[in-house]
Amino acid sequence: MRLTNKVAIVTGASSGIGYAAAKMFAEAGAKLVVSARRQSLLDRLVSEIRQAGGQAVQLAGDISDEHVAKALVETAVSEFGGLDVAFNNAGIIGAAKNVEDLTMEEWRNTLETNLTSYFVGAKYQIPEMRKRGCGSLIFTSSFLGYTVGVPGYGDYAASKAGVLGLVKVLAAELGPEGIRANAILPGGTDTPMNFANAPEAGPDVQEFVNSIHALKRMASPDEIARSALYLASDDSSFVTGTSMLVDGGASITKM
Questions:
Q1: Which residue among 152, 166, 167, 190 has the highest number of C-beta atoms inside a 10 angstrom radius?
Q2: Which of 51, 45, 40 is nearest to 13 (CA)?
Q3: Is 156 an annotated catalytic residue?
Q4: Per the confidence metrics, is the pTM higher than 0.85?
Q5: pLDDT digits (tens, 9 = 90+) for 135-192
Q6: 226: number of Cβ within 10 Å
Q7: What are φ and ψ of residue 140, in 5° steps?
Q8: How many CA atoms lie within 13 A of 46 on its CB side?
Q9: Residue 186, by phi and psi: left (phi above 0), alpha (psi -120 to 50) or beta?
Q10: Domains and CATH numbers, the chain
Q11: Regions of the chain where pLDDT drops below 50
């Protein structure tokens, strides 16, 4: 029970990594506020957590909306008395176009969802963690834009690279107050958002995605969530400002 008596927010919790992390955090003893855009999937998640003996409430909405970010923290305080952990995980894959073909609307939408939402989330999460005298901010970045560039993902890579800069500054600003900030950088993960799982993608695409990893496969959402659990827990009490690759060796595979 590594998160006993901890209160945590998890965004992007309706599926994939966020869903796996929410279940894992609850099993570790955390009291949860979960968020995503899809109300019905959040209802199912909260029901599953409660049936397993955990505590969770949900708030659906667009996490890049400042009102939603503020409401999530207010819910954590009103329901559970404070905030200790925030896993800022919600994101989108982007427009999947070459840079010169991106519209300004597509570019802004990806940056708003994948980067601005993390700034807005942290803006409201930090004051409540400060009241505790400690806390853990966790952000989902990507190996794309960090160790590799993939054609067609300029907006996605830029947004995820921006997360790393934000994390470094937050770690430096908040370290003296005992609040840690870290990023996880997943490799290819078997989630609905992965382009290899798109209806138009065939076996060749899935084989290619598997092949770029040293382990020659994609991760399960649980494998990525375990890294978030580590950063959420006191096991990582001396870890801050890190860009933690959880990429199955994709960053070191050249053939």
A1: 167
A2: 45
A3: yes
A4: yes
A5: 999 999 999 989 888 899 999 999 999 999 999 999 999 999 999 999 999 999 887 7
A6: 16
A7: -90, 115
A8: 19
A9: beta
A10: 7-252 (3.40.50.720)
A11: none
